[in-house]
Amino acid sequence: HTRPLRRYGALALIAGLGASGAVAGDNTPVTQCFSTAQTRDKIAAEKLTDPFVAMRAAQERVKGEALNARLCQKGAAFVYEISLVRQDGHVVKMLYDAATGQPFSPRKSD
User: Model-level pTM greater than 0.85?
Assistant: First the structure.
């Protein structure tokens, strides 16, 4: 059974990598997201994992389909924010450590 979203995955990834924004909370580190060009530069300069690796891992974890990914810096950590649609149709966001490709778990000291 072919999902119509699959053919738009690469376009959604590129669009998602181009999004940027910042979020601040009481004790939450400021999050800065990067443009597509900045993302390419950061991946090379920081030797980060390929975003597709994190997207595939996230898809397997939630049994869904990745819609997009964007590189953000959360405190000192680089993370991929990945949006996925689960089989039940709900859209969820997951954070993956861009250095390791593993699910992101913030340390309390950040």
Answer: no
- What's the CA dihedral at 93, 42, 106, 18 to 10 degrees? -20
The closest of 109, 54, 58, 56 to 78, measured between CA atoms, is: 54
**Residue 66 tokens, joined:** 């990745």
User: 64-74 and 91-97 as β-strands: parallel, antiparallel, unpaired?
Assistant: unpaired
Per residue of the chain (110 residues), what is the pLDDT tens digit? 444 444 344 434 434 444 444 444 456 678 899 999 999 999 999 999 999 999 999 999 999 999 999 999 999 999 999 999 999 999 999 999 999 999 998 774 44
Map residue 63 onto helix, strand or coil: coil
CA nearest to 13, candidates 58, 61, 75: 58
Which one, of 47, 42, 32, lies nearest residue 81 by Cα? 32
